[in-house]
Amino acid sequence: MTAHFAFDNSYARLPSSFYARIKPTPVSGPHLIKLNRNLATQLGLDPDELATPAGVEILAGRRVPDGAEPIATAYAGHQFGNFVPQLGDGRAILLGELIDRDGTRRDVQLKGAGRTPFSRGGDGRAALGPVLREYLVSEAMAALGIPTTRALAAVTTGDEVMRATPLPGAVLTRVASSHIRIGSFQFFAARRDVDAVRALADHAITRHYPEAAGAARPYLAFLEGVIARQARLIAQWLLVGFIHGVMNTDNMSIAGETIDYGPCAFMDAYDPATVFSSIDQFGRYAYANQPGIAQWNLTRLAECLLPLLADDQNEAIEQAQEALSAFAERFNDAYLGGLRRKLGLLSERENDLELAQDLLNRMAAGEADFTLTFRRLCDAAAGPEGDAAARSLFADPASYDAWAERWRLRLVEEPQEGSARRASMQRVNPAFIPRNHRVEAVIEAAVEKQDFAPFEELLTVLSKPYEDQAGFASYAEPPARDGRVYRTFCGT
Ligand code: AMP
Ligand code: MG
Predict the structure, then answer these.
(1) Tens digit of each residue's pLDDT (9 = 90 or more) over 159-195
(2) Is the pLDDT of residue 434 over 70?
(3) For residue 19, what pLDDT is reported?
(4) Residue 373's pLDDT band (boundaries 50, 70, 90)?
(5) Is the predicted pLDDT of residue 490 greater than 90, yes or no?
(6) CB of 362 closer than 6 A to ligand 1?
(7) Which residue lies with its CA nearest to atom 7 of ligand 1?
(8) Is 476 in contact with 369 (CB distance < 8 Å)?
């Protein structure tokens, strides 16, 4: 019995200019590394069937399951600010869509499944390292409660891929609310195909913003919806120290999920200028630039939608500008709200942002670890005996003391018991994030020694980021000075 997928493929019913029909290219020796059994069940799939050799053949692209209509989707995009009119799925193939147990439509896509008409010079393949990185980081994001694509499975292919050196090949089965990107709209807008832009917008509204369909101006409501979700998403990234690394318009999801994990990383010591990606030479996608870049990208989306907003171009531009101007407020609300929760503040006071910013400035000056500082503040919130552990993270511990004094004066205005405050703070300040040096070590063990035990262990730790896991305390620690990772690579 092979795995049964109850596909219902709405994207494949859109006009043929939206995609190319293409089957995965078979690989020689598929081997299952990891199956996300909970997610499989959520998708109505039988994890035991998926884990059989026949199931693994599907996950490796060697066998196309019944009901699949494999396609590579067309999209364009601004890459580091430069418009590329045709990108598209060059190494990802959408098998089809499933309706999950909650009634939500989800894409099932194989990343690294072989060449497509959009591959340009690429081989259509993925290397094991980036597949493991995406698996770990996307599942960590999900556990942190941040909207993201998910990882259903990772398999090795038995084939080598040529990068700087030959590397083991792998395929990631990725699950997303959809793979519609800002770049998907740009693809048609650049070709002045307004009918296609409208058809794509209608599809996205039905799928992701059904409330917009009933609005007085559905396409404006759609744009506002995308802006609202992105503003909230970027705030969530910042609140956990996440840096996407390649916020090109083709890597921004219309559904508002984090998508396309490449050289992404979490920062250790707090520094708003942090950049990890080796290809981001000028820091365009640095940590603190992410809100501004999101707004820039959303402006590109708005431009695509102009013909749908109003017949009169000036009127359309006015509507778009008003929608875009809401981004800052929505982002600031989500960011400040999150900072308040991180500091244990339930009420709102005018100086809260300044109080939080004061801490962040001191963290930056004192090279304090972002994640650990907030986690240790949870204990400090319960009583001053928690201060020692927090202050020790600062190069100049007295700098923490001065801030903590201010913070305590503010906490007096809060009605909570110390222990309750600690518990609520621990629910928003993770102990465990996918620290870069850990991710790199996992990849090295897998690639160099075919040892997947470190991957399994890290994945387990990251599945409960907000719980103190006594046996895994070392995973909460930042890297030693000489173990810091400063550069990450796409590895594509
Ligand atoms: P990414 O950097 O993964 O967001 O990819 C940017 C573009 O390059 C997309 O159109 C990808 O499909 C394409 N691409 C990346 N890696 C490969 C590859 N190995 N083979 C073919 N196309 C690729
Ligand atoms: Mg991409």
Answers:
(1) 999 999 999 999 999 999 999 999 999 999 999 999 9
(2) yes
(3) 98
(4) very high
(5) no
(6) no
(7) 87
(8) no
87 Cα nearest atom in ligand 1: 10
Question: Does 2 have pLDDT greater than 70?
Answer: no
User: Which token pair is 354?
Assistant: 């300044």
Ligand 1 pocket: which of 25, 119, 137, 163 to mutate (most atoms within 8 A of CB)? 119
31 and 157 both lie in a single domain:
yes
DSSP 8-state class, residue 250? G
**String of DSSP letters for 329-375:** HHHHHHHHHHHHHHTT--S--TTHHHHHHHHHHHHHHHT-BHHHHHH
DSSP class of residue 488?
Answer: B
Same structural domain for residues 255 and 318?
yes
* Cβ of 134 below 6 Å from ligand 1: no
Total tally of structural domains belonging to the chain: 3
Are 242 and 387 part of one and the same domain? no
Residue type, 221: A
- The number of the ligand nearest the C-alpha atom of 262 reads 1
Find the mean pLDDT for residues 200-219: 98
- pLDDT band at 491, cuts 50/70/90? low
* pLDDT band at residue 486 under the 50/70/90 scheme: confident
Of 162, 179, 196, the residue that ends a domain is: 179
- Partnered with residue 97 across adjacent β-strands are 107
Q: Which domain holds residue 99?
A: 11-179
* 37 pLDDT more than 80: yes
Beta-carbon-side half-sphere exposure of residue 100 (alpha carbons within 13 Å):
16
Cβ neighbors of 483 (< 8 A, separation 6 or more) are 437
Which amino acid would we find at residue 232?
R
Of 232, 248, 240, which Cα lies nearest the Cα of 291?
Answer: 232
